[in-house]
């Protein structure tokens, strides 16, 4: 009984001692700990109600209580919306491994200008943060940006002398904007400063939610040019996957640390990040990675790879895989693939890209289907034969090696195109002939359309019709009265098929008694859309008929109206015509009274604007 009591007491004592001496007691309800001669392994499971109860920095107060050779391994696993507090650069005494999954992380950036960070020796070797959300208040950051020149290398670089594996997957960020109470506590000068910084952030990051802590963005907002000197001599694996917010081991720091190399890096993974172009920075920086084996840009949006060779002009001899699977590569050429073979120690993996296998790619597809194309150095790209087409629809899902011309959309083999080219040529000739005939007989066609169907083209419609009292004033000599009144007027003032009767002005009927002949002529012409001149020898000899003609000519020429229509009642030698009549016959519509379609042409002339 005494032994049992002693053992029970010792068990309780060891548990209490572990809790009190190795990690914060507040972690007890959520964490399990196992201890070996070399490691203290702490595994914590948090639920949504466990709000920010775990603070990684608190661990510093307990890590010195262990033996000198003991290392800490911390694993935090969060249920949705569970929260923790963790600050870059995670400088904790003896922290060897840190893994955080599914947590909302607060205060992540709050130590950016903490000058005592260098007092803690680097120890972190393995870091993995996945499916987490970084939550931060933007106002404290904005108020401190004017001192950003004081940022320390320790914060920017993290545990650069010890880290071997850094993994960041699916990291998002949430910015908590200041409320009105926060602004009320600021001076007017400070408010203006904050508004200016917020405006500059929106301008610099107009298409995305900004991450103001990325130093290459901040230098667009505040005036400084800071390049951290990071020394990742032991880093072997760097993964930044599907991340809105890239932490300190990011692409820009890797490339901007001009004086540093990465002699042990083997894996570089930047997949699922929305890249549309292969980063050009590789051209100037490949020499920094003498042991690199695997570059992963899969599951991005890269479409242009024709010039990927230029990134390795001076690449040392070693085998490297460039993973470009599941991007947006649609077009390949035999020339492009042949150039890849010049990169003797590099293999490109483009599987899973949405290749276009349409008829225009037929030469390439025919070459790839031939096994001899992949002889020699090309052998490592023979997998392209088994890639599946994404377009056209007839080829979707079919392997290139099995693709037929019909599935490409090339159902007509090139040797059989002659008959189709001949048919196409005949159709082209027929079309040209039809266009020539349409142009040559365009007036007759328009006349036929109007007479039979009362159809006018929009540019031929005379919109002045509604603004005049008469459709036409008829000017003629008394010698032609019988023909004008007995034939012409009767035809035009009578409805014809679908055409309405026309309203005509005749001097015998419509001139106003008591008004001078000259004024009657002027008023009649002014109130008529057209003046019809019945041209005869007697007309030329009549003073009043010529007065009517000259007034109508004035309407047509001087006032730029399409007004005058001439009916050639009888043949008159040109020598008997005065100069004005000669010009008029050449410039305006004239209709021969002997034309079988005389009335049709006259009706059409009265309805259109053309001369």
TrEMBL record:
Domain TIR: 468-610
Subcellular location: Membrane
Lineage: Eukaryota, Metazoa, Spiralia, Lophotrochozoa, Mollusca
Chief place of localization: membrane
Residues of the signal peptide: 1-19
Regions annotated as coiled coil: none
Keywords of this entry: Membrane, Signal, Transmembrane, Transmembrane helix
Keyword presence, Magnesium: no
Parts of the chain that traverse the membrane: 417-439
Membrane topology, as annotated: Single-pass membrane protein
GO cellular component: plasma membrane
Species: Lottia gigantea (Giant owl limpet)
Protein's name according to its UniProt entry: TIR domain-containing protein
Keyword Transport part of the UniProt annotation: no
Listed Gene3D superfamilies: Ribonuclease Inhibitor (3.80.10.10), Toll/interleukin-1 receptor homology (TIR) domain (3.40.50.10140)
GO molecular function, one term: signaling receptor activity
GO biological process, one term: signal transduction
Stored InterPro entries: LRR_dom_sf, TIR_dom, Toll_tir_struct_dom_sf
Pfam families recorded: TIR
């Amino acid at each position: 009984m005494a032994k049992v009591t002693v053992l029970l007491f010792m068990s309780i004592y060891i548990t209490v001692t572990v809790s009190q001496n190795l990690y914060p007691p507040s972690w007890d309800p959520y964490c399990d700990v196992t201890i070996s001669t070399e490691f203290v392994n702490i595994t914590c499971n948090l639920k949504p109600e466990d709000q920010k109860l775990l603070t990684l920095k608190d661990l510093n107060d307990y890590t010195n209580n262990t033996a000198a050779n003991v290392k800490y391994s911390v694993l935090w696993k969060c249920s949705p919306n569970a929260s923790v507090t963790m600050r870059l650069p995670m400088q904790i005494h003896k922290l060897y491994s840190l893994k955080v999954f599914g947590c909302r992380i607060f205060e992540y950036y709050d130590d950016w200008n903490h000058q005592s960070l260098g007092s803690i020796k680097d120890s972190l070797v393995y870091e993995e943060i996945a499916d987490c959300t970084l939550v931060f208040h933007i106002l404290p950051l904005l108020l401190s940006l004017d001192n950003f020149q004081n940022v320390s290398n320790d914060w920017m670089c993290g545990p650069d002398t010890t880290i071997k594996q850094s993994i960041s997957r699916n990291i998002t960020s949430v910015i908590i904007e200041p409320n009105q109470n926060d602004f009320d506590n600021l001076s007017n000068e400070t408010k203006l400063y904050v508004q200016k910084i917020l405006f500059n952030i929106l301008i610099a990051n107009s298409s995305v939610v900004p991450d103001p802590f990325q130093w290459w963005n901040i230098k667009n907002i505040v005036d400084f040019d800071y390049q951290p000197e990071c020394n990742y001599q032991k880093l072997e694996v760097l993964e930044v996957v599907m991340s809105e917010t890239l932490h300190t081991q990011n692409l820009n720091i890797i490339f901007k640390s001009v004086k540093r190399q990465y002699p042990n890096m083997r894996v570089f993974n930047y997949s699922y990040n929305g890249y549309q172009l292969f980063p050009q920075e590789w051209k100037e920086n490949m020499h920094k990675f003498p042991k690199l084996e695997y570059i992963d840009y899969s599951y991005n949006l890269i479409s242009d790879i024709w010039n990927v060779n230029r990134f390795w002009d001076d690449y040392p001899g070693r085998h490297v895989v460039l993973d470009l699977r599941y991007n947006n590569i649609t077009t390949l050429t035999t020339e492009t693939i042949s150039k890849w073979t010049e990169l003797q120690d590099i293999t490109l993996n483009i599987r899973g890209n949405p290749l276009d296998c349409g008829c225009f790619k037929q030469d390439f597809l025919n070459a790839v289907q031939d096994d001899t194309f992949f002889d020699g150095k090309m052998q490592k790209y023979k997998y392209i034969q088994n890639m599946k087409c994404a377009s056209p629809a007839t080829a979707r899902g079919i392997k290139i090696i099995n693709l037929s011309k019909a599935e490409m959309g090339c159902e007509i083999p090139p040797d059989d195109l002659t008959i189709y080219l001949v048919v196409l040529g005949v159709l082209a000739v027929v079309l040209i002939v039809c266009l020539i005939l349409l142009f040559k007989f365009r007036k007759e066609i328009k006349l036929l359309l109007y007479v039979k169907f009362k159809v006018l083209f929009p540019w031929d419609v005379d919109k002045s019709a509604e603004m005049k009292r008469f459709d036409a004033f008829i000017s003629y000599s008394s010698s032609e009265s019988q023909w004008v009144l007995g034939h012409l007027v009767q035809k035009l003032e009578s409805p014809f098929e679908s055409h309405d009767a026309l309203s005509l002005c005749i001097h015998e009927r419509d001139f106003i008694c008591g008004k001078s002949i000259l004024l009657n002529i002027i008023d009649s012409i002014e109130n008529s859309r057209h003046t019809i001149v019945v041209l005869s020898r007697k007309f030329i000899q009549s003073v009043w008929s010529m007065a009517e003609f000259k007034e109508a000519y004035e309407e047509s020429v001087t006032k730029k109206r399409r007004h005058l229509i001439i009916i050639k009642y009888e043949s008159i030698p040109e020598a008997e015509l005065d100069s004005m009549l000669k010009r008029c016959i050449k410039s305006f519509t004239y209709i021969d009274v002997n034309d079988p379609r005389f009335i049709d042409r006259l009706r059409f002339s009265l309805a259109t604007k053309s001369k």
